[in-house]
């Protein structure tokens, strides 16, 4: 764990907003690997398009070209709430299980957060009428969702799955990264020019906005989180946050380590995100929650419905 989040923040700055000489030297030194990485991803995309599969059901992918932290999951939750007979499919990063797993079936929970991963459990709790499935193989998961009666499928982070016929929505960070290189020289998982392959590009402040409130605040709150780019929470933190602890993305906490952190900081509660909170639900600890709500602009919903109309 990173009790001092300086390393996490250094990596974030290096990838997204390099400003020191060491950042820039490392980025340029790794460019040969980045070029190879880009070549591999473009080849996989080309090969996938040659074998594209259609499933006779509308499929919407909500993803991003950069590493996580753009509000993809809460946006997808809010979007899925607009429709009936929905299934959400995702890989389930950070989970302790393998293979395909039904996390929830129209409100019936089928596993815990350890098995599902944090994002899948957040979907399951936020979408009680939906079916949530985690699987490394999205094709098998889509077929299972159809068998279970889904009429509309959302793929969390499915842009790279070029072998699946779908509507691609890409989230563009606001502000965009200064560094436009692919990994490991920069934050892009696929080349930036692939934005032109999206059916719709959405940006915070243009297509949606977020509202954040602290639920169950206490006098001395310790921020504990395991999300990508934890510094993005700073704008929403109240003045009585007495410390910050950043863990690697999707980290699975133990109750004992959180108890120790509270004792070390003399905190009256743990302040954490909704995504983190699903992994603390069984802990006997005082939790304060950074509750995030997304409001999608009507014009953006109209665009999405126009994309869906020919496929329904």
UniProtKB/TrEMBL annotation:
The enzyme class is transferase
Q: Where are the transmembrane segments?
A: 25-43
Give the source's domain of life in one word.
Answer: Bacteria
The Swiss-Prot or TrEMBL record describes its family as follows: Belongs to the LpxK family.
* Single GO cellular component term: plasma membrane
State which Enzyme Commission number(s) the record gives: 2.7.1.130
Q: What is this protein called?
A: Tetraacyldisaccharide 4'-kinase
GO-annotated biological processes: lipid A biosynthetic process; lipopolysaccharide core region biosynthetic process
InterPro entries under this entry?
LpxK (IPR003758)
Catalysed transformations (reactions):
a lipid A disaccharide + ATP = a lipid IVA + ADP + H(+)
Binding-site residues for ATP, renumbered to this chain: 66-73
PANTHER family the UniProt entry points to: TETRAACYLDISACCHARIDE 4'-KINASE (PTHR42724), TETRAACYLDISACCHARIDE 4'-KINASE, MITOCHONDRIAL-RELATED (PTHR42724:SF1)
What's the source species' lineage? Bacteria, Pseudomonadati, Campylobacterota, Epsilonproteobacteria, Campylobacterales
Q: Keywords in UniProt for this one?
A: ATP-binding, Kinase, Lipid A biosynthesis, Lipid biosynthesis, Lipid metabolism, Membrane, Nucleotide-binding, Transferase, Transmembrane, Transmembrane helix
Biological role stated in the UniProt entry: Transfers the gamma-phosphate of ATP to the 4'-position of a tetraacyldisaccharide 1-phosphate intermediate (termed DS-1-P) to form tetraacyldisaccharide 1,4'-bis-phosphate (lipid IVA).
- GO molecular function, one example? ATP binding
Please give the pathway this protein is involved in: Glycolipid biosynthesis; lipid IV(A) biosynthesis; lipid IV(A) from (3R)-3-hydroxytetradecanoyl-[acyl-carrier-protein] and UDP-N-acetyl-alpha-D-glucosamine: step 6/6
Taxonomic source organism: Sulfurospirillum cavolei
């Amino acid at each position: 764990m990173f009790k001092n989040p300086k390393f996490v923040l250094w990596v974030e700055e290096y990838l997204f907003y390099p400003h020191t000489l060491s950042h820039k030297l490392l980025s340029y030194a790794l460019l040969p690997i980045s070029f190879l990485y880009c070549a591999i991803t473009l080849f996989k995309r080309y090969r996938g398009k040659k074998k594209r599969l259609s499933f006779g059901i509308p499929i919407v992918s909500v993803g991003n070209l950069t590493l996580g932290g753009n509000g993809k999951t809460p946006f997808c939750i809010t979007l899925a709430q607009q429709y009936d007979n929905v299934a959400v499919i995702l890989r389930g990063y950070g989970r302790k299980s393998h293979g395909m797993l039904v996390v929830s079936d129209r409100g019936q929970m089928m596993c815990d957060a350890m098995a599902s991963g944090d994002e899948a459990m957040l979907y399951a709790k936020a979408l009680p009428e939906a079916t949530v499935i985690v699987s490394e193989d999205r094709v098998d998961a889509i077929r299972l969702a159809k068998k279970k009666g889904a009429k509309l499928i959302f793929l969390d982070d499915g842009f790279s799955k070029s072998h699946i016929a779908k509507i691609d929505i890409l989230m563009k960070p606001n502000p965009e990264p200064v560094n436009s290189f692919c990994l490991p020289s920069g934050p892009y998982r696929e080349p930036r020019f692939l934005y032109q392959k999206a059916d719709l590009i959405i940006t915070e402040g243009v297509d949606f906005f977020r509202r954040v409130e602290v639920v169950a605040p206490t006098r001395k709150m310790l921020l504990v989180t395991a999300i990508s780019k934890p510094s993005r929470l700073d704008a929403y933190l109240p003045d009585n946050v007495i410390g910050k602890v950043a863990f690697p993305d999707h980290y699975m906490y133990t109750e004992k380590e959180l108890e120790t952190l509270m004792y070390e900081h003399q905190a009256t509660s743990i302040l954490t995100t909704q995504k983190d909170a699903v992994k603390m639900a069984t802990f006997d600890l005082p939790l304060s929650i950074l509750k995030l709500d997304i409001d999608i602009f009507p014009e953006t919903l109209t665009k999405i419905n126009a994309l869906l109309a020919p496929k329904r």
